Amino acid sequence: MNVCPLCNGLRRMTVYCSYCRQPMEDQGKVTDYLDDYSPYMDTDVMKLVDGYPRTYLNRECVHLFYCPHCREEEVRFIKE
Question: What top-level branch of life does the organism fall under (predicted)?
Answer without folding.
Answer: Bacteria
